[in-house]
Design the sequence.
């Protein structure tokens, strides 16, 4: 994971052919620097505004921004209707590839009709603009249809990853007070249908506590039997499928809430990140166009994320569809029925732009190049990476093996909170370096600073610090749902004097001044590109009667980036202290949070290393988990604790 200085000299300039046809050119940086707001006003013209905006940015109520004040638009209209009106109704929007091998192509005209049906039926159910809808679905076209139907009606959606447990779903339903849940009977996982609606039922019956859900709308995907609650539960095929396929989209204010997406913070309670309409769509559209060099008439785009994460929201749904994309949507895992699946899909559809996560690239590396080598991947012309730092070795492999040694790679840094890509090379412009996110995009301003906020100085040596965003940007979060104090506290107090957004990531500037992301500096782990807080896993562990105390760290893992390692102290009356308990504890975390939060290792220990003020020293536990020599133990209450951990 560490890079040497030699990497910095290893630079990949764009080819003249790519540069000549690229959507981006170097003048974007100059124009944005000369007039940032004017630049964003220009980008907003990519969209259709029912009512033009009168002010680009109002930051007087910082840290809550108003972008494109006075403007009105309909986000779904921008993603669908206008393409049909412009004569592109027959263009395929989605090539759906189901895990069992079923396929379905949806044109823009068809997608618009489906979204209109859903919008008409949701209106009939009594849902009105501002209501919240939870979407708990696998990667099938109806998930995208449901999202766009909400956007069309001004309903605020909260997509919950279909791998999350009933407990996690319930927490999110309650926090947003959702009136409706949209789900499926089940989901395909490696050839077997796994129940999903079951989880909704479980979520809604927890402790008999009251909830706000009036209806559960169910798409039949796998055909498995599902429990049914009369009057509350509704089949999609009995309702939406019969609704009218025409619907007139109404405009909403630029700042109308578009969605809430929960993400892990440093405490156990997930944060409902709130995004609004006009600024969010402007920046997702602009970045999808320039960073992926997307050409609507010729490209076949594939982002491998799940719609349960921000990457799915911004780079499967909103950015791409607003740009009239033709894209692949794949339901399943990369190794079902075998490790060839992704490469077969690239070959079958002639994918030109491919966007994935470093963890998958490292998995491909492990499987070996003989797998991609048996496929014709020559359609690919650009590769993207997101979710965690990409190590130079994986970067080179990606370019050489998947990209035939020629495709540009865009390493895109951003967050659920930023809504859209912030730091990335521009293809056709930037000479890239393996492992570096390079520079903030035109219109975006970032700095690497020390504790006090002084910009770190690079020069003959590289310099490390914290990443901050020192200017507001259109797709920035507008708050944490229901907790604006936490919003201010989490992102805006660290550099309150300067008024900067603290990203929670460490970064370095190399000797050329190019930016490298080093990873989280807080108690958030990054497992295969998924954010999981140590506190969340700890509270799932202590919920077990045998556990008195738990401390969790993210230890470096060759495939997943980080792996979860837990240290637990047992209660006095714990009877089982062996492997069976460890297995049970791992299962407990899986069911309480999600299988992605399942600890890789659990160590039962007699004590935990604590500072005199009682804080668990995670840094030291990380040393233990990674088998390193212990760092500074001078602030420990009891330095001998490690001898007992070793014995444990
Ligand atoms: C990390 C995902 C290095 C980072 C879009 C960030 C990255 C967190 C990169 C956000 C990248 C994302 N290089 N690190 N290109 N992209 N990260 O909210 O730590 O799921 O803060 O958003 O992922 O994760 P989130």
Sequence:
């Amino acid at each position: 994971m560490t890079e040497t200085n030699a990497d910095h000299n290893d630079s990949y300039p764009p080819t003249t052919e790519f540069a000549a046809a690229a959507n981006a050119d170097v003048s974007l940086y100059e124009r944005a620097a000369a007039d940032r707001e004017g630049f964003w006003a220009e980008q907003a013209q990519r969209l259709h505004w029912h009512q033009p905006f009168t002010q680009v940015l109002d930051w007087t109520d910082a840290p809550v921004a108003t972008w494109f004040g006075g403007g009105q638009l309909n986000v779904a209209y921008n993603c669908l209707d206008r393409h049909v009106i412009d004569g592109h109704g027959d263009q395929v929007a989605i090539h759906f590839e189901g895990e069992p091998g079923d396929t379905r192509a949806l044109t823009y005209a068809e997608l618009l009709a489906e979204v209109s049906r859903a919008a008409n039926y949701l209106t009939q159910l009594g849902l009105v603009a501002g209501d919240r809808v939870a979407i708990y679905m696998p990667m099938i076209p109806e998930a995208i249809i449901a999202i766009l139907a909400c956007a069309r009606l001004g309903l605020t959606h909260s997509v919950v990853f279909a791998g999350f447990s009933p407990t996690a779903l319930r927490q999110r339903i309650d926090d947003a007070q959702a009136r409706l849940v949209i789900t499926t009977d089940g989901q395909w996982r490696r050839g077997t249908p796994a129940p999903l609606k079951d989880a909704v039922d479980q979520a809604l019956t927890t402790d008999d506590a009251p909830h706000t859900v009036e209806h559960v709308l169910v798409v039949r995907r796998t055909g498995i039997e599902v429990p049914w609650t009369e009057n509350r539960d509704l089949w999609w095929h009995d309702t939406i499928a019969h609704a009218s396929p025409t619907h007139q989209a109404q405009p909403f204010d630029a700042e109308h809430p578009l969605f809430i997406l929960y993400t892990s913070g440093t405490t156990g309670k997930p944060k409902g990140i709130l995004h609004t309409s006009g600024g969010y769509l402007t920046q997702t559209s602009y970045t999808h166009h320039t960073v992926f060099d997307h050409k609507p008439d010729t490209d076949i785009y594939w982002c491998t994320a799940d719609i349960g994460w921000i990457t799915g929201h911004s780079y499967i749904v909103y950015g791409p569809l607003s740009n009239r994309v033709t894209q692949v949507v794949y339901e399943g895992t990369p190794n079902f029925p075998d490790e060839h699946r992704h490469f077969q899909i690239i070959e079958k559809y002639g994918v030109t732009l491919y966007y994935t996560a470093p963890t998958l690239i490292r998995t491909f590396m492990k499987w070996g190049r003989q797998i991609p080598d048996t496929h014709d991947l020559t359609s690919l012309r650009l590769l993207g990476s997101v979710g965690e730092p990409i190590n130079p070795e994986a970067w080179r492999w990606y370019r050489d093996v998947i990209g035939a040694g020629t495709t540009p790679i865009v390493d895109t840094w951003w967050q659920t909170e930023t809504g859209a890509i912030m730091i990335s090379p521009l293809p056709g412009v930037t000479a890239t370096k393996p492992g570096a996110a390079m520079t903030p995009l035109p219109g975006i301003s970032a700095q690497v600073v020390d504790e006090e906020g002084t910009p770190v100085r690079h020069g003959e040596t590289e310099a490390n610090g914290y990443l901050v965003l020192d200017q507001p940007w259109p797709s920035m979060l507008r708050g944490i749902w229901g907790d604006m104090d936490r919003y201010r506290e989490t992102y805006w107090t660290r550099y309150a004097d300067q008024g900067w957004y603290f990203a929670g990531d460490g970064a370095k500037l190399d000797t050329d001044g190019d930016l490298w992301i080093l990873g989280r500096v807080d108690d958030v782990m990054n497992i295969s590109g998924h954010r999981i807080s140590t506190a969340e896993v700890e509270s799932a562990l202590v919920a077990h009667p045998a556990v008195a105390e738990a401390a969790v760290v993210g230890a470096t893992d060759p495939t997943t980036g980080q792996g979860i390692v837990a240290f637990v102290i047992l209660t006095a009356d714990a009877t089982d202290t062996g492997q069976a308990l460890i297995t049970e504890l791992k299962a407990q975390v899986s069911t309480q949070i999600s299988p992605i939060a399942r600890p890789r290792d659990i160590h039962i220990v007699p004590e935990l290393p604590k500072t005199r003020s009682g804080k668990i020293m995670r840094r030291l536990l990380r040393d233990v988990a990674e088998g390193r020599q212990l760092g500074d133990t001078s602030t420990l209450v009891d330095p001998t604790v490690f001898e007992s951990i070793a014995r444990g």
